[in-house]
Amino acid sequence: MKQYLHIRMAAALLFIVPLAACGGEAEKPAEGEGKSASEYEKGPHNGRMLRDGDFAIEVTIFEDGQPPQYRMYPTRGNKPVDPSTVNLAVTLTRLGGQIDRFAFKAEKDFLAGNGVVTEPHSFDVQVVATENGKRHVWKFANPEGRTKITAAAAKDGGIEIETVGPVTISETREVQGIVQLATTARSEVRGQFPGRVVQVTKAVGDYVRKGQLLARIESSESLQIYPVYAPVSGVIAERTANVGNVTFDQPLYVITDPGQTTVVFNVFPRDLSTIRPGQKVVIETIDGQPVAEATLGGYLPEGNAAAGTALMRASLPNRDGKWRPGMALQGRVTVSAFTVPLAVRTEALQRFRDFTVVFANFGDDYEVRMLELGRKTPEWTEVLSGIKPGTRYAAKGAFLIRADIEKSGASHDH
User: Fold this and answer.
1) What is the pLDDT of residues 52-64, one digit of tens each?
2) What digits encode the pLDDT tens for the residues 168-189?
3) Model pTM?
4) Comparing 138 with 413, which gets the higher pLDDT?
5) Domains of the chain: residue spans and CATH
6) What's the per-residue H, E or C state across the chain?
């Protein structure tokens, strides 16, 4: 099965069309058309040079010890131009239609943008500069952490899309347990009067219905033979009655109802402060397959001395008798639940540069979203910032997207 999944993933990768990362883009018809990140002209501040005749702007994003901010260096004939003589504006158009606009003011030998250039630095850029009465316009694409995957390839690769929004996150604790009969599942059958057993009809393991004949006994006082009937339906678990035996107060039979079972869970000392009676527990097989939902009863008077644990009981529906005493099961106890405005699937989280990200989805395009995270469970993680409500993202298969972006040589070059 694993080999099959690897083949599917590899096949899906063949359909993915990668885009270069920030600084590695192909530009629109404008300055530096068709140049890669390593080919476009860089200026003395390691930024992108935009030229129009002898006038030029060097575009940089300064983020050393501060939030990312545009710093633009104007020149004419490769010599600095007084930034106070330049009127500059930048418009960024992001996937999904978001538009960011920046005005600039002169500071020292550069023009400083009036806001933070939020991550990811992935957008189409328009720079408009007016200097000495002349207007200059440049446009170029600046994708980062982005790739394109067709719908067919995404399906083949196991990518599944969900929407960011409010989620009730449950914090759980895992406990291990053993199936036992319920205390109400055992019935002892005795003779009404002492006497000699003259007939028995059932053996251990037989199923009996309520009212069926189990034995006949000759009374020691009246010497009359009287019948003994099953008071409940169930399985014969024990039989002490044999023909010729003389009955006193001991049970002739023990009947158990296999449908009345419970799970007795071991609770370790570290969880005693969080696991309490009345909490919900999801009962599962040892390999994680769901069995039933139940409510924890109180702590049992005695614990498990061998394991050093306390014991709690939960009812286990067992109409078909599938769960036999002694079988091992596990439980996930919900110890708290809270609703958060934004959350993503924990398995969707990936690493990109120094960030934890998910990949936002816009049709065939996938792009990183850098997240600030809050509380986390194996299923859900709270998002404090970095993605907008209603954004579609890759909830499953995100590793495939990350692998393709890394394969494309993602960079962060301004």
Assistant:
1) 999 999 999 999 9
2) 998 889 999 999 999 889 999 9
3) 0.66
4) 138
5) 22-143 (2.60.40.3340), 148-171+338-407 (2.40.420.20), 173-181+259-330 (2.40.30.170), 186-256 (2.40.50.100)
6) CHHHHHHHHHHHHHCCEECCCECCCCCCCCCCCCCCCCCCCECCCCCEEEEECCEEEEEEEECCCCCCEEEEEEEECCEECCHHHEEEEEEEECCCCCEEEEEEEEECCEEEECCCCCCCCCEEEEEEEEECCEEEEEEEEECCCEEECCHHHHHHCCCEEEECEEEEEEEEEEEEEEEEECCCCEEEECCCCCEEEEEECCCCCCEECCCCEEEEEEECCCCCEEEEECCCCEEEEEECCCCCCEECCCCCEEEECCCEEEEEEEECHHHCCCCCCCCEEEEECCCCCEEEEEEEEEECCCCECCCCEEEEEEEEECCCCCCCCCCEEEEEEEEEEEEEEEEEEHHHCEEECCEEEEEEEECCEEEEEECEEEEECCCEEEEEECCCCCCEEEEECHHHHHHHHHHCCCCECC
